[in-house]
Amino acid sequence: xxxxxxxxxxxxxxxxxxxxxxxxxxxxxxxxxxxxxxxxxxxxxxxxxxxxxxxxxxxxxxxxxxxxxxxxxxxxxxxxxxxxxxxxxxxxxxxxxxxxxxxxxxxxxxxxxxxxxxxxxxxxxxxxxxxxxxxxxxxxxxxxxxxxxxxxxxxxxxxxxxxxxxxxxxxxxxxxxxxxxxxxxxxxxxxxxxxxxxxxxxxxxxxxxxxxxxxxxxxxxxxxxxxxxxxxxxxxxxxxxxxxxxxxxxxxxxxxxxxxxxxxxxxxxxxxxxxxxxxxxxxxxxxxxxxxxxxxxxxxxxxxxxxxxxxxxxxxxxxxxxxxxxxxxxxxxxxxxxxxxxxxxxxxxxxxxxxxxxxxxxxxxxxxxxxxxxxxxxxxxxxxxxxxxx
Length: 390
Ligand SMILES: *[C@@H]1O[C@H](CO)[C@@H](O)[C@H](O)[C@H]1NC(C)=O
Ligand SMILES: *[C@@H]1O[C@H](CO)[C@@H](O)[C@H](O)[C@H]1NC(C)=O
Ligand SMILES: *[C@@H]1O[C@H](CO)[C@@H](O)[C@H](O)[C@H]1NC(C)=O
Ligand SMILES: *[C@@H]1O[C@H](CO)[C@@H](O)[C@H](O)[C@H]1NC(C)=O
Ligand SMILES: *[C@@H]1O[C@H](CO)[C@@H](O)[C@H](O)[C@H]1NC(C)=O
Ligand SMILES: *[C@@H]1O[C@H](CO)[C@@H](O)[C@H](O)[C@H]1NC(C)=O
Ligand SMILES: *[C@@H]1O[C@H](CO)[C@@H](O)[C@H](O)[C@H]1NC(C)=O
Ligand SMILES: *[C@@H]1O[C@H](CO)[C@@H](O)[C@H](O)[C@H]1NC(C)=O
Ligand SMILES: *[C@@H]1O[C@H](CO)[C@@H](O)[C@H](O)[C@H]1NC(C)=O
Ligand SMILES: *[C@@H]1O[C@H](CO)[C@@H](O)[C@H](O)[C@H]1NC(C)=O
Ligand SMILES: *[C@@H]1O[C@H](CO)[C@@H](O)[C@H](O)[C@H]1NC(C)=O
Ligand SMILES: *[C@@H]1O[C@H](CO)[C@@H](O)[C@H](O)[C@H]1NC(C)=O
Known about the structure:
With 390 residues, the protein is mainly beta. It is built from 3 helices and 25 strands. Helices cover 11% and strands 36% of the residues.
């Protein structure tokens, strides 16, 4: 059975398994870099492909045997020893759509040198991230993610061979097209939001795509973030319909942390680089105290980086709230503080958070791409001309 048949079969299975109310996972691209054959994850029906359709350069390799406590996708990788920089995975894209892209890197001493490399990853010629694989802790893979609105008919995720002879590699690459461009509406054309943190509060386990309604629809990963001394709240929403922008999964909205008392703030802290960056923070709130009394109120102020300007939230049962702080220009460590206002009877709480930095993809990075763009639009014009003749 070839790949095409497999995809058709998967599509069929999915539509029937989920009554077509569920995301179009058959459009997702999940590449198990370095794998010799595709694998179907039977738990969530994600089909992991090989690199073949997306990249020509590089070689396949397995990690060293002793590293076994990792997912199957991390056991193989593709590395690029030829110094034919850049080494690009190419995807056809729709010019106005947005794509969640996640790349994972697990060194696993595949080359026997015990020397994890450092290299840059770019998207359509714009530098996304410097991946420092020796910074991985406890043998965890390095995972980077962003939401890209490439504004082009192609998206190229490239690994650049550094000057110092380090050899770049990649373990997996996942691309999910958002079904409507109303999701993450602040992401303008030719802009990307680079993920710094996506957290779910008051739960023990991360929330991921599960293959059914309980998990995330777009393959996002919500990391469970523990807060010592904060109250963990949870409820069961039983799939009653709550609509919030960006549709965080129910599992995420069902849980929250609450400040230990009315006098204590909730402080969310994170570290950003020392350069001035534009930041977007999305904070998700849903009152889940079902024993809340009629005259109770949960009102608090949100403040970022000690600024005077604050946003006030007054939560009501059954009404989710998304507070977006954007654009905030920040340098170095940042605190987002939530403190109860005078008269509130319940302390501040929060269910989930996403934090991104913003990358513009406006300028034309090099003369060569300018040339190929000109060529493309020329081809387009010629095509239009022929259509006009027909
Ligand atoms: C990796 O290991 C698998 C099975 O253990 C084997 O089939 C495959 O050929 C190996 N890949 C490479 C590049 O050595
Ligand atoms: C394997 O990984 C899991 C989670 O990544 C961890 O909880 C567990 O302790 C690890 N087991 C060993 C033997 O390292
Ligand atoms: C990781 O690599 C960077 C640059 O290659 C180096 O500066 C740093 O000291 C290394 N860190 C560790 C823990 O080896
Ligand atoms: C990554 O790119 C920056 C420029 O954006 C460059 O200064 C740096 O040397 C590159 N790092 C590596 C490891 O290639
Ligand atoms: C959804 O999938 C998860 C993980 O596979 C499973 O634990 C859970 O029971 C499933 N829930 C339903 C309602 O099918
Ligand atoms: C809430 O759960 C986190 C772990 O997820 C834990 O660290 C914290 O102590 C718990 N809070 C309380 C008050 O039990
Ligand atoms: C949590 O509360 C305990 C007891 O009140 C205190 O000793 C500890 O320092 C607190 N931890 C944090 C992180 O505030
Ligand atoms: C931020 O970085 C500093 C120094 O590198 C560290 O002490 C601090 O714990 C970090 N804070 C967070 C929230 O990670
Ligand atoms: C950061 O950049 C923004 C926009 O260019 C500017 O308004 C702001 O003053 C800068 N902040 C710092 C600390 O340099
Ligand atoms: C829920 O509301 C009730 C009634 O006001 C209150 O007694 C209780 O402490 C609240 N629980 C939480 C976790 O906020
Ligand atoms: C304060 O925030 C509001 C909305 O968040 C914004 O409209 C207003 O311009 C801000 N004021 C200042 C002084 O930054
Ligand atoms: C963030 O809050 C912590 C207290 O949790 C405080 O120690 C730290 O100085 C604050 N950092 C900034 C940059 O305001």
